[in-house]
Recover the amino acids of this structure.
């Protein structure tokens, strides 16, 4: 029975008193919400209902549905992050490569010449987007060499929300175009989980790639959570690369966003992945630089130094640091080595110039929609210094170099005209990387020295910055970008995001420097650490220790044997004069300070067991402990690290297919691409197994007869020779249990086939493994399933150590 009297008795109060209690509760909730500073808790607490509710709508008054709105007048924000770029690379900062779009932005804004990164890709990107040091957010190194120590998990915690999420919940449209490399390797497949993908880290839209590098001609790209293939516009075949596609996507997004919500500001993160290897670029760009680098890297460095002095991007008393003894003089190269080195640098220069052009197109689009004046642009020239990972003499196929295979100079000369094109996977020599890091020592990976961590930056905001073309020399770090953005758009740093208490912001705002070139720098202390290379900056001084291993080699070293250096950066812009012997007390103080900062920001333990850290058992794996793998149609773009492990062991691949009348051709299973891999496919009705050994050799076994219409069972038995890694094998083909062919494979790949190619069923996505077909070469019959049975590798401890070293080298180059 539910009469009014019964309800009164049950509640223990009169209806009138109940209404008063509800009203008081509503008022208290409203008061609590009002006392919460706007934006400090995200999402914001639900506002109290301010309308009136009666028994029907006739006796009621609705409230307004609230939506997040950016602060009045909040600017758009564009962050551009270039990859693997040196201080002396872009013309704006004295490099030989013309970069007119960076020039025009610098003339409209400010150039920062003492800006710093982490010396490596993934860590810089994590620090940039979170405003915290890379170890603080679990990204002390790349995810593929992560461990369970807090600073090295490869998993950005939810307690460090990205600026994209903060801006999105404050009324911004957000989009990400380009390179990610902050999703853990084991979470990059279709099985996810997706909570560390851009779409669940605050970006409404994502178009780009997840790994450390991409084949510019045939990239593995995603739109939001979906794998897609790059669409080449009609008429631009052979002239259209990922660099073009990313700019097109960004421009389309800007046009659409401003068409639909012209008053809503956007946050666009544009990270093209250029100028990271492979240095792929259309021939029309290559032709612009033919013969321009015949002077070699020693002369280039001297010329760049003089241009930098003339431009004023380095102080007049700056010294040019000498070439390390480990890098050969250009004049010591053979004529063929010089031809190859010059051509590889031409490709790199063309890639840089093309990248400048594409970023310029994005800026043009913002100007076209009338928003450039109210857009804060951060154009960061490098997530680290230029890459010193291309070997001493360069590579046509960097995957061969990763595996420790030397490429015959004659081979590179033979393929000279293919450099930069779809059949190459080229990287330039160490000497050129050193040259484009002018005037500093060293480069990428070497966090102890400025060649690895000092990257120039241009900031423009026409509505705010009045010192057009000004120079700024305050010492700042990539973690300072997020606080600068939040202050610029007038949004507070939240203490809680999506129910998770936030780590304190470790960056400081740079906004003060927009108005005053002579303002005292807000950052007094900053640590640096990568692969054991470490440094501590405090109040103009820096103590630095390079930890033995060279960026193009592998190995471990004794931390106690490291030699510390000391530089007065206020008087020594390039770290040319080591003052350790003159100021031992100052050095000791900074060394002690490093350990304080290292403990504070999760840098410890220092760990140079680099090869061992590539062991997959240290991280979650999708394939650990499995020996049988079954794949079904649609299983494409599976990351190599999550596919059946077929290297250095015997294995059997079995495909069940249905051949229609009239026959069928196409790929049944493939892994890798033009740089190396294998494919089992049907060609002219016959089964074919092909093994691409780092483009240096191709081994093919072809079936003796064409397949009959109807059900067919295709089996390939790969009998590995054993006795170590990278040995030979025999491949045998069977059709319906009848032997159809056999052949020798003299050499096999022992590490990775590729940096970014994938494993596919029913097609060969990306670039083709075989030269006999063009991708995707989808199978035209019916593919029911593919099974792969793998045997244990049975490798010695020495072999496993070598494999780890190769894997480590791969991760360093691919980052």
């Amino acid at each position: 029975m539910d009469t009014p009297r019964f309800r009164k008795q049950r509640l223990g109060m009169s209806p009138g008193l109940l209404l008063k209690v509800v009203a008081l509760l509503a008022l208290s909730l409203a008061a609590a919400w009002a006392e919460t500073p706007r934006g400090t808790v995200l999402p914001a607490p639900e506002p109290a209902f301010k309308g009136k509710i009666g028994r029907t709508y006739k006796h009621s008054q609705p409230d307004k549905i609230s939506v997040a709105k950016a602060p009045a007048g909040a600017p758009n924000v564009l962050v551009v992050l270039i990859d693997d770029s040196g201080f002396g690379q872009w013309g704006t900062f004295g490099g030989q490569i013309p970069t007119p779009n960076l020039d025009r932005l610098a003339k409209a804004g400010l150039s920062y010449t003492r800006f710093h990164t982490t010396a490596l890709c993934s860590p810089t990107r994590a620090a940039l987007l979170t405003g915290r040091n890379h170890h603080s957010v679990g990204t002390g190194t790349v995810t593929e060499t992560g461990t369970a120590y807090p600073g090295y998990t490869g998993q950005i915690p939810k307690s460090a929300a990205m600026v994209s999420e903060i801006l999105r919940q404050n009324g911004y449209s957000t989009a990400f175009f380009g390179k990610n490399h902050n999703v853990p390797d084991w979470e990059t497949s279709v099985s996810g989980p997706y909570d560390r993908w851009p779409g669940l880290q605050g970006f409404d839209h994502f178009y780009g790639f997840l790994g450390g590098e991409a084949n510019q001609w045939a990239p593995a790209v995603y739109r939001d959570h979906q794998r897609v293939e790059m669409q080449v516009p009609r008429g631009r075949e052979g002239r259209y690369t990922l660099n073009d596609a990313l700019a097109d996507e960004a421009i389309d997004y800007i046009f659409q966003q401003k068409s639909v919500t012209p008053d809503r500001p956007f946050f666009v993160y544009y990270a093209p992945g250029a100028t990271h290897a492979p240095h792929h670029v259309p021939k029309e760009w290559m032709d612009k630089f033919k013969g321009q680098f015949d002077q070699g890297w020693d002369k280039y460095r001297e010329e760049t130094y003089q241009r930098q002095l003339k431009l004023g991007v380095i102080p007049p008393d700056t010294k040019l640091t000498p070439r390390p003894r480990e890098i050969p003089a250009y004049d010591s190269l053979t004529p063929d080595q010089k031809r190859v080195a010059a051509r590889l640098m031409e490709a790199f220069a063309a890639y840089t110039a093309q990248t400048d052009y594409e970023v310029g197109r994005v800026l043009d689009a913002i100007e076209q929609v009338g928003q450039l004046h109210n857009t804060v642009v951060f154009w960061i020239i490098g997530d680290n210094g230029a890459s010193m990972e291309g070997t001493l003499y360069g590579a046509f196929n960097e995957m061969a170099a990763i595996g420790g295979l030397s490429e015959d100079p004659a081979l590179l000369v033979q393929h000279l005209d293919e450099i930069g094109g779809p059949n190459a996977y080229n990287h330039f020599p160490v000497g050129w990387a050193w040259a484009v890091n002018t005037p500093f020592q060293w480069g990428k990976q070497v966090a102890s020295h400025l060649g690895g961590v000092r990257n120039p930056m241009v900031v423009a905001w026409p509505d705010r910055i009045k010192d057009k073309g000004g120079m700024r020399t305050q010492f700042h770090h990539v973690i300072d970008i997020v606080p600068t953005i939040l202050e610029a758009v007038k949004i507070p740093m939240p203490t809680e995001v999506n129910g998770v208490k936030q780590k304190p912001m470790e960056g400081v705002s740079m906004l003060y420097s927009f108005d005053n070139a002579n303002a005292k720098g807000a950052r007094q202390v900053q640590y640096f650490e990568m692969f054991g290379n470490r440094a501590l900056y405090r109040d103009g001084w820096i103590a630095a220790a390079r930890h033995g291993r060279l960026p193009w080699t592998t190995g471990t070293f004794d931390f106690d044997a490291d030699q510390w250096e000391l530089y007065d950066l206020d008087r020594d812009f390039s770290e040319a004069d080591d003052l350790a012997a003159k100021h031992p007390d100052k050095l000791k103080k900074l060394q002690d300070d490093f350990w304080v900062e290292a403990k504070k920001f999760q840098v410890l333990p220092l760990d140079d067991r680099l090869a061992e850290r590539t062991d997959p058992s240290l991280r979650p794996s999708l394939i650990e402990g499995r020996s049988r793998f079954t794949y079904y149609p649609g299983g494409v773009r599976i990351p190599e690290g999550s596919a059946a492990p077929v290297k250095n062991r015997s294995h059997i691949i079995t495909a069940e297919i249905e051949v229609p009348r009239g026959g069928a051709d196409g790929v049944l299973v493939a892994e890798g691409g033009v740089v190396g891999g294998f494919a089992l496919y049907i060609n002219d009705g016959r089964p074919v197994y092909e093994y691409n050994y780092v483009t240096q050799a191709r081994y093919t076994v072809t079936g003796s007869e064409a397949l009959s219409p109807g059900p067919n069972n295709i089996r390939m038995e790969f009998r590995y020779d054993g006795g170590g890694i990278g040995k030979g094998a025999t491949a045998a083909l069977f059709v319906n249990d009848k032997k159809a062919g056999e052949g020798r494979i003299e050499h096999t790949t022992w590490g990775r086939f590729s940096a970014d190619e994938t494993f596919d069923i029913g097609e060969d996505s990306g670039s083709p493994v075989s030269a006999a077909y063009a991708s995707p070469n989808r199978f035209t019959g019916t593919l029911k399933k593919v099974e792969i049975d793998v045997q244990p590798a049975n490798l010695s401890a020495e072999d496993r150590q070598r494999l780890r070293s190769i894997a480590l080298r791969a991760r360093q180059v691919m980052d």
